[in-house]
Structures are given as structure tokens and as C-alpha cells.
Records
---
Amino acid sequence: MSKKNSSAKKFKKKFQENSRILNVYNVFKKNISFSKKNLIVVAVSGGADSLALSALTKFNQYNGNNKYFYVLIDHGYRKNSAIEALKVRKMIKTKINENLIIIKNKQKFKSNLQKNFREIRYRNLFNFCIKKKAKILMTAHHFNDQIETFLIRLARGSGVQGLSSMQMINKSNKKVKLVRPLLEIKKNELKFIAKKIFNNYLKDPSNTSKKFLRSNIRSLTSKLERYGISHDQIFRSIKNINATNNLVNQYINDLMKKTVFRKRGFIFIKHKTFLSYNTEIKRIIMGRLIRDLSKKDYPPKSKKISFVIKKIEKKSFNKLTLGGCVLKLNDSQITIQKEVKKT
């Protein structure tokens, strides 16, 4: 038996003989039950979550389903990031016999580090998908991430749309679907898989840094259950809010057909009709339009959208910017176009 076949046999045996891993795999498989085989890009970082996702996708390939690329974005922020990236490449090659593609980010940031690195990461991953004609980008966001996201948005005063948190399938990028098949899986299960398959995983020091809001929220969530605030109950609330959000979106879609039309890169909103809606509906419509036109994953913060809506209601501006877009106002309509930055 060749070394490659022997390695594959050991890997499959670890999956098939461990009921705990198989339980996670069955949830994963259910969540990626696409109608046909797909070419999929897997976002890898070297943490337990993404290594577990790499193992799950590899096992999925043995079942004759999808074909996967494994991609890591090296931000170059930490001194040893290049060495760490190579270490992850070796782990991926040794344990699941796949090649890890490393893309180096050359942009430097001094502020809003997590936000900027996140945007750069997704931009590079989506561009790689388009280059390889892959229609799906898969990330390892999980149950605990969903709880953290909910609490972050709660702290920011988000409405129903924000509090519904991350969606399992996000279609905000028109060419590539973002799929998060592990949202129902708790981090401990992913750590278990990473240790079983890879023996180890990397720990990002920024995950515990007090400089970042998510890190502080993460330390808070670990204490909630001591005070009777169950993570499972929070997750159930997220699902309920998500169901409500779906109904709201259906209603909003019907209103937008009456209110909004697009032409040659411009969005036109019927001023009088828009003003007849309540504040929350106006905020959702404006946020969605700005997000779609700017091609960002998320709309601007509620506070900024609310500020613009008050300006529209008072007719106290002719032109302003929001989320990388320019808004112009006259008596009959609001015009929105993407902001052209001067070079």
C-alpha cells in the first residue's frame, strides 16, 4: 500500500470509528446538501475551527461529493505570521494530504485592525473564488461565534436585522455564496476534531487581547452561564429573531418594489413614498441599498443610517455620503450612487 493510500485509510478510520466526530460531520453534511457537486474554497487560519472544517471537507471529498481549495490569508501583522502560515500548510499536507494556498496581504493598517483585516481577508478570498470559478466560499464560523456576534450587535443597538446575526448562507456577493455550515456546532466539538486529526492547532493571541471588542465579549460569554444565562437559550432566541427577520425581509422586498428602481449604476428612491414608512422600515431599506451598492458584507451602522434618515425627513441636505455611497435629494426622489474616490 502506498504512503498516500495508507494516510487516507488512517484518516477515514479516525472519522468512521469516532461517533463524536461523525455526529458533527452529519450536521455539516446536512448544511451543505447542495443540489449538485460544487467547487468550494475553504478559508483556513490554523485555529481549531478552520482545521476542523478542513478535516470535515476532506472526509466529504472521500464520499465523492464536492471539490475543495484550501486558502489562508497571511495578514503579516504578527512578526511570525509567515512562519505560522507555513506551519499550517505542513499540517494540512501531512494530515489530510491537501495543498494549502497562502495569499499574503501587503496592506498595512494602524487603526480598526480587525475590521480592516476582515475586509481584506474576504476581498482576497472572494477574488480567489472568482479566479478559480468557485461558486462557494466556506468559513468555520460556529455556535460560539454566533453568540458573540449577537451580543456585539446588541451592545451596538442593532435592530431585528442585526440581531438575527450571521446567516448560514449569505448571498451579498453576487458571484460567490458565503456558506457557514458549522453555525450549529459548539467550539468544543471543533477543538476535539482538530486535536484528533491534526494533534494541535494555532492560537491567535488577538483572540484574548483586551484591545478588541470581540475579545472582551468572548470573555463575558464564558461567565454568562454561571448566572443562569444559557448559551443554548441565546442561540434559540437568535433563531427566533432570524425567523422574524425573514418575514420582515419578505415585507420589505414588497415595499422596495414600489419605492426603488435602478438604472445604470444609480438607485432612485421615491421620496414621498419612502417618507411614508416608519423609521425602522426606512432604516432597513436604506441599509440594504447602501450595502448592495457598495458591495460590502454589512450595511453601515444603525446610528449612521438613522442620522441620514433624519436629514432626509427634514430635507436638510442636498448631498452627503454614507457607507461609500453618495446620496442626493430633491423634491421627488433620493438618488444614490457609489462614491468615486479621488486618486
---
Amino acid sequence: MTKRSPFRYFKTSPEIIRLAVMMYVRFPLSLRNVEDLLHERGIDISHETVRFWWNRFGPMFASEIRRNRISRMRAYSNWQWHLDEIFVKINGETHDLWRAVDHEGQVLESYVTKRRDRKAALKFLRKTMKRYGRPHVIVTDLLRSYGAAMKVIGNEDKQETGRWLNNRAENSHLPFRRRERAMLRFRRMRR
């Protein structure tokens, strides 16, 4: 079964649609700026058309870029993951947010559980490995759940632990913590 083109009912060529969406996403341009730049190139479209294309094709282009990036990273000789977990409150209940970050700081996977044990770590590792394949090295903090899960998977020789080795994963939590603090500030204002 052949996959149908997502551009099949559009009069504009896929190259122009891709160019308009990439210009809007990649550069800090408004929809009207993208419309003006394309008008200078002889392409007469509305800014609403660019917005429609961005809504329709943006996620598809993003997943394509992510897929290509991951395939390139797997070939990289030092494909490392940094794993970490933090406590978060969801509706007043404490949960654990497990995160996997690659050696460039891109968040690969996030997973929320009630507990922080071997079973949760194993499920998180299997989910991440199913999507991205096996890494060359996994850097973790000193949580014992990772070691127990690695023994089950058979990856314990690829695990590195240390106090300062996992800073990449720790730094990836900062935007989440900033949002969390902002929400607390907002809640205090009501009181």
C-alpha cells in the first residue's frame, strides 16, 4: 500500500509550502513578513495561508526533522543518554517525572510514574529504547533503580554514574521548574 502525499489537494507546490513553513518556524518572522518575502520572490499568497500551512504541515516537518536527527545521532560514536528523575506535583499529588536527554541536551523522552522503583525505571528504559534504539553510554545519578533496571535489560556495563556527570539532565529540568515556580506565584496572588 502506497502512502498518499499530504500535499495532494493543494494547488501550490510542496516546495513552496515547505519554504513558507520553514521560514516562519526557523526565523523570527511574523506571518506577514513571510508573506512579504514570498511576494518578493513572485509567490502571491496570504498570511492566513501561511498560518494554515504551518498548522497543517508544521508537526509533520518537525517529526521528520526529529527522525533524521535521531538516525544521525545513532551513527555518532558517542551516543549518550543522560537519565534523571524529579518530583512534580500534579493536582496536589507527588509524582516522579523521568527524563532522558541526549548528549546535546535534547529531551528524548519523558515519563510520569507514582513510584521511583526498579519497575518504573525498567518501563521508562524499555519505552525509550524502543523508540530510539540502544545508546552507547547511559549516564545516571546514583539512584539504585537504574542499576537494577540495567541488569534486567543487560546494559549494566554501559552505565556511568557520578556526582557531576549528569548535569546535562539536571539542566534540562530548569525550564520545567521555572514554569512550576511561576504557577506557584500565580496561585499565591489569589490568596
---
Amino acid sequence: MTSHEIDYRIYGEEMQYVEIELDPQEAVVAEAGSFMMMDDGIKMETIFGDGSQKDTGFLGKVWGAGKRILTGESLFMTAFYNELSGKRNVSFASPYPGKIIPIDLTEFNGKFICQKDAFLCAAKGVSVGIEFSKRLGRGLFGGEGFIMQKLEGDGMAFVHAGGTMAKKVLQAGETLKVDTGCIVGFTQDIDYDIEFVGGIKNTVFGGEGLFFARLQGPGTVYAQSLPFSRLAGRVLASAPRGGGKDKGEGSILGGLGDILDGDNRF
């Protein structure tokens, strides 16, 4: 194996975190901001690129960093090394309510494709690269951009699904249609394309967008019930406007309640 062999345990229900057990000299790489806690004896190191052992030399590191820029991520990742003789633990937390999905890349022929913001952490040696769409429709109308991430190697990786996670195993020729934002990831054998919803009423009044993803087997698809873009949109839509004070939207009294409360500004 080229990737470090790591053990793990996932805790929690709605706001999960994953605890990685590191043997001496083992390491795990993670996105900036996902770190939760670690035992004494673990060294943190900021690195260019994805931390895979394939990136050698200066040009390799620059290329690894460039791949991360294209996917909208930071230039840097953080590696956590166990420098002591005994086992040590380091934990990484979910960015918002949902489920952490462990991905054993050896079970998927060494490659898994995911949304650019789904990746959480992985054993050192796993390559976090870019998956370019070869079809124009996917790039223009995919909803999540032209580029997705690909995780390659023979180690463990962890991705995050918002809300409730659904796992669908598709047989050869079997098709699944999914909202573009609800895709977490899929195996490399899945044929992925964008399909027009169709129909004037569906297009104008459906409220579900103009396109959805069409995924055809054989392969495995992971979907999420609450993508971050949808969560953020609903939070912003519910946020108070005009000074930050709740103006009584949704209450029975509405504006009258503001007057009775002493807020006479209009």
C-alpha cells in the first residue's frame, strides 16, 4: 500500500466527528477548518497540495496546490503526524449537520468522485485531485460547477453528506435522477450527465431548477438530503432585515406586534 493504514471511529448522530487512530509515524491529511482535537504527541504540518506521496519535488507540490485552487479549495492542507512510539488519536468534525461517510478506496478500484466541498480528511498518500467534465452540458448546467474532486489511492478517505445520506447501488443500465446539489459522490463507473427537466410548467413554476443529474449504473451513488447551498439559502431567507432585529415575520401580530413592543420605526 502507498497510503498509510489508519483505524477510525465515527461518533455522534446529527453533528458527527471522526476519530482517527494513528500508529507511530502514520499521518492523516485534512481540509483547513475541520480539525477538532488531538492527543499530545501529534505534530501538525501545513503542506502544499494534497499530501499524496506522488507529489515529489517543487513542481509536484505546485501542481498539487494548483489542483486545489481549481476546485475552489485553499492552497494548503494540514497533515497530522504521530511522532511518538504509542498510538495517538486526532479527530475531525462535520462542518454542518449530516453524516460522515468512510470511503475505502480499495473497494472502488482506487478512485471515488465527489463534490468539491464533500471531502473531510484522508490517510496520507491519498491523492485529492480534480475530475474534469468531458461533456459540455455538465460543465454549464451541473449546478455545482465544471469541476468535481477525485480521490485516488488505496487508503481510507472521509466525505461529508448534509442531512440524511442515501446510498444507491445501481445495476448495469439502471438510472437514477438526482438534484444536482444533492449528489455527494459516486464510483468511477457511473455515467453522469445533466438532463433538462422539460415542460413549460415544470420549467417556469416547478421551483426545482431547470436541470437534474442523470446517473446510470453500474456503480454506487451517495446522495444527501440537505446540501450546504440549500441550507445557506434558507438561513439567509429567514434572516432578519433592516438592522438585524426580528420584524415579526410569521407571527400573528406581525407589524402590530412591533408597535406594541415599542419599535415604531418604519
---
Amino acid sequence: MKLWHKIFVSIFVIFTITFNVGVFYITSYSYNFNRERERENAIREQQMIQSSIENRIISAEALFPNIANANLMLATIVSSLSDFYEPQGVLLALFNENGDIIHNDMLSITIDNQLLIFESTSQKNTMEETINNKRHIVVASILPEYPHLTFVYARDISQIDDFRSDISRVFAFVNVIVLIFLGISVYLLLRHIIKPIINMKTTVAEIADGAYNKRVVVNSRDELGALANSFNRMADSVEENMKQLTKASEEKQQFIDDLTHEIKTPLTSILGYSEYLQFAKYTENERIIATGYLYETAMRLNTLSDKLLDLTYSRDENIEKKALDTRILFEDLTAMVLPVLAPRNIKLDTSVDLPEITGDETLLLAMLRNLVENAARASADGSLITVRAYKEKYPILEVSDKGCGMEQKDVERIMAPFYRVDKSRSRKFGGVGLGLSIVSQIASLHGAKVNVVSVPNVGTTVKISFTSS
């Protein structure tokens, strides 16, 4: 059962029960109130008729002194009153002390003996009886002036039963009308209220099927509106995470593809020259050339292995930062890159206008080494590479060269693993395309930003700004 069906049925059932309980209470209260009022009216009217009977007997005693014991004459007195009250739904009866009937309009019922037992002349006994298929309230009492006579009065109160039946039919009709109106109203209202939830359900299903750009549109400021806004924020987060995961997956796959290619190329060379040395007939000069190729290829694999280790180490976020003497850091860098620069007569010029810098010494040296080696690959023999440390708004490490430079489209991609602007030049100088990716990782661990400015045939400048220092 759907949610709005449950709400609809619950409201319908609760209202029906509440309404009918209320109707039952009102009807019962009204019936009991009217019955009590009829009882009180019956007692008053019985008292009035009883007084009239006593007065008539007293008046008749002036002519007939023994009339109080003359049943026939007493019957005549009561009969005249009975003829007057019977059209009003009132029945009368008179009994003597022996229980003999002097007059009785209630022949269709048997008078309960308990009704005729009294403890005092002022006592009035009441009961309800059905006479001629109609409910009557019966009141009995002794005539105070003539204790040997018992007067019984019965009043038709069937109208209150008819009233209860009529009012029950009216309420039943009203109940049906109200329930129909309520059902239609609640149905339309719930459909209106539940519409945003239905829309949200549809959107959730679409997002689950991969449509991460879908959003819930709810133009209300109530709890559903707040829920929709929260859901949309969650969807934004999911979409962003999925984009990041997709990008990471694509980058990972690209990394694997590039790494496979980088490994396959030297392995092919190694296998080829190994097979040549094993089976071919060659001269000593050819052997030296072949083993030279094997050595160069093995060195390329070794360089690739070192770079991968650097890249893995640079992703370790648990680095220990400390204040480093910038001058000593540059001296260590110079000693580290000298074997790469010296064979090509490339000069390294260092400028220190920043006494110290905070970071991990090993990682910073690896970062600067990669930048210098990249600059060397882009530079001609005998050129100059400059490394500077200074402070503007933030501490800055800068490496610049006067090499071949890059187009802007290449600048935007050089941080990606294995990306090389000029593959032939990179291979010539042992590059594997991981240097700037390592630089980017190390800068990120230090809370620094990498900014590359390059102009073709002019040179490249790489600035590392330590914005978190």
C-alpha cells in the first residue's frame, strides 16, 4: 500500500470512528435527557391528577359519606378524568388495598407488584412498560387522604424513541454526505501534498539509473521544501563525487596505459638485443653497440622505477614539515643535479632572498630536482637555468629556463602522469613524463600552488607559492 493510501485510509477510519462515537454520545445524551425530563413531567402530572381525584372524592363525600369505599362510584370519578387524558396519551388506574381493580386503562399489561408496594404515603414508584406497542412511563403512589387507594398513572413516551430513530437516520445521512465530501477533499489534498514526494521518487529513480544531473523541483517552504533542498544538495555532492571518481578512474586507466607503454617499449628493445646477442653472428663492434643499447634501455627502466617510487612517496600525506635553511637546500640541489647538467655544459644559477622555508627536505629536493631536470631537457647545451627563493605575498620557489617553451594547451596538461610535450627529446634525455606530476603532488602536500608560464622559443618559468605558510 502506498504512503498516501495509508494516510487516506487512516484519516477516513479515524474520522468515521470519531464522528460516529460523537453521534452516538450526542444521541444517547439527548435520549436520556428527554427520557428524564418525561419522567419528571410524568411525576408532576401524576401528582396533579392524584390531587384532582382526592378533591373530587372529598367533594362527593358531602353527598355520599361512604364513597371512598364504593368502588363503582370511585370508578366513575376516575373514568371521567381518564376520558379527558387518554387522547393526550395518558392512561389511569386505581386499586384498593386488596389489590382489586377499581379502574384500569392498562389492561394490556400486568402491573408489577413491586410498583404497588410503598413505605410511606409520599413515596412514588416509577417504571417503564410497553403498552399497546408503545413505551410508557408508569408512576404509582398512595392517595395521602385515602391510604387504602393506590393511583397508577402511565404516560406515553414513545415520541422520544421516535426522536432517537429520526435523529439517528439524520445523522446516518449526514455521516454519508460528510464521508463522501471528506473522502474527495482528503484525496485531492493528499494528491497535492504527495506530488512533491512522487516527483522526488521519480528523480531518485533517474539518479539511480545514472542521470546524476537531475534535481527535485519543489516550490514550497515547508518540510517537503526543506527535504527537497537537502536532497538536491546531496545530489550535487553525489554528482561531484561521481565526476571525481570518473575522472580518477580515467586518470588511473590512462596512467596504467601509459605505464604499460613505457615499460613495453624498453622491454621490446631488451628482448630484441638479447636475442640478437644470443643467436646472431656479430663483430666486437656490433656487440659493443648492442650492449650499449641494452644498458641505455635498462637505465630508462631504472629511471622509470625511481620516478614511480618518488610519485608513490609524494602521495604520503604524513609528512613532517620543519624550517629549512634555503641556502643549504639549494647547495644540496646543485650537487644533486650536477651529473645531469655538467655533460651538457648547462649552468645552474641560484638566488636566495628567502632565509628559510618550511617543508619536508627530501620532498622539496625531489620537487626542485624534477623541475631542474625538466628545464634541462627543454634547454639547449650551454644554456642557463635559474632557481630562486624569495617572498612576495607568500614564500616562492621558482625555476626558470631559456629553453624551447610550450604552447598553452601543453601547459594545461603537463601535470598529468606520462605526459610529454616532445617525446623524442624526453626519450633522448631519459625523461618518462612523471617529473611534473611528482612536483604537483609534493606541492599539494605542502599546501602550495604550482603556476607555469611558458612561451614557445622563449622559455618556461615554474613558480611554487606556499600559500599555507
